[in-house]
Write a structure and sequence with these properties.
Order of helices and strands: HHHHHHEEEEHHHEE
Oligomer: single chain
Number of helices: 9
Distance between the termini: 18 Å
Structural class: alpha+beta
Helix content: 40-55%
Strand order of the largest sheet: 4-3-2-5
Strand content: 15-25%
Radius of gyration: 19 Å
Number of domains: 2
Number of strands: 6
């Protein structure tokens, strides 16, 4: 997986990008299952990687059933993933892990040895915390982001550490200087759609841009454009980011 750039078929919908940014709760991740299954093929996930993620998900699910605090493990697990993979891949891994956890929690529960699971959780967290990385980054993802105003206080998983955590953002990903993907993160509950208008976009900021951003994503008019072409259409972004990844784990 390191060094891969996922290829997207360009067929997005409002439902699709809402799914990608939804919180990883059991109800949501169960609805995500078909989408995540399709992403497995899209990313050509090695069986070994899926087995590793499935193992982590099984541990999180068992610990959750025992009312154990799984947040430190999940955070450290994703921290390691962020060292190894691109933003797009990390988003997929988080969604996949959450989906599997949700599926396991929906199954009939059986009595578990919670003391044993607690020890297993501590051991797994200790191994993640002791992970050491070597080598220089082997690949990168760079992006533009545009602020779309407050999302109304809706709690969403923060996959990309950009902008205000309670604001929606339009994210545009580039591969070799060309738009490869785009989506809206931290989507509010209520969504309006308005035809994109370049002049109005230029005069509007924040939440006023959100309805046009929805139309922009659904129309895919920026797919394949260069950075200069995006700036000509949307103006200067509110921020940019380059994420280098592809470290090897030192055992």
């Amino acid at each position: 997986m390191p060094g891969m750039h996922p290829k997207f078929d360009g067929r997005r919908s409002l439902c699709a990008y809402m799914i990608r940014v939804a919180c990883l709760t059991a109800a949501v991740v169960l609805a995500q299952a078909p989408v995540v299954a399709a992403q497995v093929e899209k990313f050509d996930m090695p069986k070994g990687e899926l087995a590793r993620i499935n193992g982590a998900a099984a541990l999180v699910a068992a610990a959750t059933q025992c009312s154990l605090d799984t947040k430190p493990f999940f955070q450290k697990f994703m921290e390691v993933e962020k060292k190894l993979y691109s933003f797009e891949q990390v988003a997929f891994i988080g969604n996949y892990l959450g989906t599997v956890v949700g599926q396991k929690l929906s199954e009939p529960s059986h009595k578990s040895n919670c003391d044993s699971i607690a020890r297993e959780l501590r051991t797994a967290l200790g191994k993640l915390s002791a992970t050491k990385f070597g080598a220089k980054p082997s690949a990168k993802t760079d992006l533009f982001w545009f602020d779309l105003g407050s999302n109304g206080g809706v709690k969403r998983a923060v996959i990309y550490p950009i902008g205000e955590p309670d604001h929606s953002v339009l994210i545009i990903f580039f591969v070799d200087g060309i738009v490869n993907d785009f989506n809206i993160e931290r989507v509010p509950e209520k969504i309006d759609n308005e035809d994109f208008d370049k002049a109005k976009w230029a005069k509007t900021t924040g939440a006023g841009r959100f309805p046009m951003a929805v139309s922009l994503v659904n129309s895919e008019i920026i797919l394949g454009k260069t950075k200069d072409e995006v700036i000509k259409l949307l103006g200067q972004p509110d921020g940019t980011m380059v994420h280098e990844y592809g470290y090897e784990i030192i055992k």
